Amino acid sequence: MMGQGGGGTGGEDTGGAAGDGDGIRTFPFPAELAVGGVGMQIGPMGTDRTWHAEAPLHRVHRIDFHVVMLFTDGPVRHMIDFAEYEAGAGDLLWIRPGQVHRFSRECEYRGTVLTMQPGFLPRSTVEATGLYRYDLPPLLHPGPAQLAALRAALDQLRREYEDTATLPLSLHTAVLRHTLTACLMRLAHLAASSAETSPQHADGTFIRFRDAVERGFATNHSVSAYADALGYSRRTLVRAVRAATGETPKGFIDKRVVLEAKRLLAHTDMPIGRVGVAVGFPDAANFSKFFHLHTGQTPVAFRAELR
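Structure (tokenized):
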């Protein structure tokens, strides 16, 4: 998707897109299109370059990789997980793996787009740069100095990405990882400083809990079960989650379940009962009660509002 529509997703094209069984297409990182087959791409957005050219990019879809778009023109409207964001020249959008999003057919996407596989960087770098901080805002407004530094970092990354002649592939890949890490450090600092509240340090306890919830929220809603599986006391888990997010572990789990339910209700035609089963509620009545408690709407009313 380097081209009009942004940087690295595809839309509803059948080529390469995987179904999750929930009706929302998930597009993998197109490694075959990357220079040297490395786990990242960087290049211009514009009408002359597209991915999945026949796909309607305005349809909702997921991606299993990161997309960062730096715009040189605007405004551009882009939907990410039920929020519409409007970006202008000098703004950035950061879309993370698993998020449901949609490109605007009325807008022309111009600027630079960076895409990367989560596994391209070592885990220590992934954590240090907040690649999975879904609580941080996807729309970023850098100041003049920050924007100049980010542009310079992206320009350097693009030069390294396109230079396949001066180094063997193994060294070329290593240089890309280091250059990408430096760029992401700047981006992560901007994202953290743009948050509504100053984020707390996420220690290893919370990180393990967060990852476990991401893997298991569709079947496991029990704080005690997560604590036991991770080898922590419930009290330790409560302290770690509160320090990192300001929420209780149960609140963190419920928020993730509600988000997935909203995604399925809004973007698929799955029956309400099947949506409930997909997020861990075999009984449709219990799912409706849970959803109403957390959103103030029934699943039926939420779906109808968006159709």
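Residues 242 and 248 are 6 Å apart (CA to CA). Residues 169-194 form the longest helix (26 residues).
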